[in-house]
Design goal:
alpha/beta, seven-stranded mixed β-barrel, globular
Length: about 375
């Protein structure tokens, strides 16, 4: 990525997809160039949490809601210490934010953190294109990146986009995870200790556990089985994160499964559990991203509206219980839009996972009960 701060919001900009389709608009945030995987998010709110979600590392996010930035940026809702998206695409940015917690505009924050974006784009047409053709590599160019008539030379820009790395095969967790362990203390009386493997964890996730009396030890993605059990955990948590699950090391996951310690995984963690159980993973055509995805809990029949951010999924049978090296497993949750596996559960060990984000940051609170389910597993194991 190359960028400057000159002329942000006024300079011409162009978005070019790897298949040659282009969209013209105006620079939004920093001026320069950036590359990543083009994906779309269907949330009408929660853009600050989306921007700071480490799972969006190396992705250029297209917002399907036309008006973005209404509530500005505050100092409370970040899910990590920085913006992780590689680029940002909006149709109609708010001219003046209006919210009592707002400290600065979204445009100012993108500029401050050097995130190249584009506004004035027909995001409906762009989203339809990605739905039909699938998520693909993309570049956003503005300012000096368009010098010498490059604004009108889509062929040259397309060639540069196609030199960018693919998301399939990308091993990214260590790039976004903490490098040093840290502890999120329990709120009130401490009931349990959990070792959380940081694969790109969002800040609200350990907070949701802390609210239930859990002391959370957040460990780097490179932590070993010995590191996990050094904290004396009652349970182990596998976080969300970016990249291709097929590249991840499963040593820790298998070590926890062998010991029978209560295990809860979300998003990337769900995919790692699936692979450890012997299931495959695959790249979705355009993924699930947003805070309005319908999922059914197959054990209760209840339909939840949930927050998602994933481009890969687990390939497990929906119609039967599967035998695995760690006992019987079943698909516990399924997406009602396309029947994608959204959760796994072991029948013979205290282990489960979901593909979505129950911490609800941003998003509905329909799935908050999953943290209570994890607590119940640890209570049962202790008893």
């Amino acid at each position: 990525m190359t960028l400057s701060t000159r002329g942000a919001g006024k300079a011409p900009a162009v978005l070019v997809l790897e298949d040659g389709r282009s969209f013209r608009g105006r620079a939004y945030g920093a001026v320069g160039e950036t590359f990543g995987e083009a994906v779309f998010s269907t949330g009408m709110t929660g853009y600050q949490e989306t921007l700071t979600d480490p799972s969006y590392h190396r992705q250029v996010v297209v917002m399907t809601a036309p008006h973005i930035g209404n509530t500005g940026i505050n100092d409370e809702d970040d899910e990590s210490g920085r913006i992780w998206v590689a680029g940002y695409v909006v149709r109609d940015p708010a001219r003046v934010p209006s919210n009592w917690r707002s400290r600065r505009s979204l445009d100012e924050e993108l500029l401050r953190q050097g995130v190249v974006g584009i506004s004035g784009v027909d995001t409906r047409a762009l989203t339809r294109h990605l739905r039909e053709r699938g998520a693909m590599r993309v570049g956003i160019f503005s300012g000096d990146a368009l010098a010498g008539g490059a604004l009108d030379d889509d062929t040259a820009l397309t060639a540069r986009v196609n030199q960018a790395p693919l998301m399939k095969g990308a091993n990214l967790s260590a790039e976004v995870a903490t490098t040093e362990p840290y502890v999120v203390p329990a709120v009130g009386t401490k009931r349990f200790t959990v070792a959380a493997l940081d694969l790109g964890i969002k800040g609200m996730t350990p907070q949701r556990m802390a609210e239930r009396g859990i002391e959370v030890h957040v460990l780097p993605a490179t932590a070993t089985v010995e590191d996990v059990y050094a904290v004396g955990p009652d349970g182990v948590f596998l976080s969300n994160g970016p990249g291709d699950p097929a590249t991840a090391d499963l040593t820790v996951v298998k070590g926890v499964l062998e010991r029978g310690t209560p295990l809860f995984g979300i998003c990337f963690g769900n995919q790692l559990l699936g692979r450890a159980l012997g299931f495959g993973t695959y790249k979705l055509k355009y993924g699930h991203r947003g805070i309005n995805q319908p999922v059914q809990d197959r054990s209760t029949g209840k339909v939840e509206v949930t927050a998602h951010n994933h481009g890969f999924a687990v390939d497990a049978p929906l119609d039967r219980i599967s035998d695995t090296p760690y006992g019987r497993a079943e698909v516990s949750h399924v997406c009602l839009n396309d029947n994608v596996v959204e959760g796994l559960r072991l029948l013979d060990r205290p282990v489960f996972s979901v593909q979505y984000h129950p911490e609800a940051a941003a998003g509905p609170h329909d799935a908050a009960y999953l943290f209570d389910r994890f607590t119940s597993l640890m209570e049962g194991q202790r008893a």
